[in-house]
Amino acid sequence: MSYQRPNGHTFSLYLRGGAGTRRLDGSPGARGRPGVLCIMPQEHSSEWEITDFSEFVHLYVPDDQMRRMFAETFDRDARLMALPELTFADAPALARTLRQMTKAMLAGGHLLAEEAMTQAINDFFVDPRYGGMRPCAISGGLAPHVRRRSLEYIEAHLGETIRLQDLAAIGQLSAFHFQRMFRASYGVSPHGWVAHRRVERAKSMLSAMDPIAQIASACGFSSQSHMTRAFKLGTGVTPSAYRQRQ
Question: What fold characterizes domain 2-126?
């Protein structure tokens, strides 16, 4: 099997078997086994030989979402994200959460699976052996104080219309320049970040029994149907289904 510069990042956990799997362009003696992890960053290339049974789970994460999660976790510029390429590594914390994700998915527990996926990526980021930040200087992007004030403004105005021009004014930048610098710093556009934060706020509010239409308004959606579309796009389920699964 050959992987040639794919889009997105891949976390692969071996659940059973794997002794017949080896990487042809890596360490020739290394073989898969239950509990080991492979990390394949975006645009990596690799060649594999598979001669025996194995069972594993792949978690695919788009690059923009990976960088958004990094920026959200560490409150740091997304370009500092470090994602090494690993083959057959022992990573107990990541293995545990990926197993939990697999069990939840097989049982139809999408809410638990989503939580496990988020936890798996957070575990990766905070483990100094695998994730973390690049020890290098970066140029461009938003200045730290502009990043902080922009996110504070977004959180304070999620229930309102948030205009790109208003965000750009915080850093005294043009809308075009602000949008480019925001994407560089956070991995996603300002619109993508706002959409994510609105869904996250809706998720927290759905634990109470307020009407969904009221929650939609409080989170800045134009209507209940608008929230339903955005929520399903972000979580895979409707707000009603999410509330029931909680």
Answer: Jelly Rolls (2.60.120)
